[in-house]
């Protein structure tokens, strides 16, 4: 089962996905394990994709 397409989620689901992905990325970043590099990069890319969609929907202020 693949991850959901962010465009297909409603606003609340997208915000929950954003928070959960951000927490998971923070946890992975604290681990000192070179095997996590690809997972960390995947999560960073996913988080960026979610942030982009949130900005499109005006649910997240730009930095």
UniProtKB/TrEMBL annotation:
Domain of life of the native organism: Bacteria
This protein's name: Uncharacterized protein
Species name: Nitrospina gracilis (strain 3/211)
């Amino acid at each position: 089962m693949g991850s959901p397409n962010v465009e297909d989620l409603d606003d609340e689901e997208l915000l929950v996905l954003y928070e959960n992905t951000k927490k998971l990325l923070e946890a992975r970043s604290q681990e000192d394990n070179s095997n996590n590099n690809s997972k960390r990069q995947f999560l960073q890319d996913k988080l960026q994709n979610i942030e982009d969609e949130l900005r499109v929907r005006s649910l997240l202020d730009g930095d």
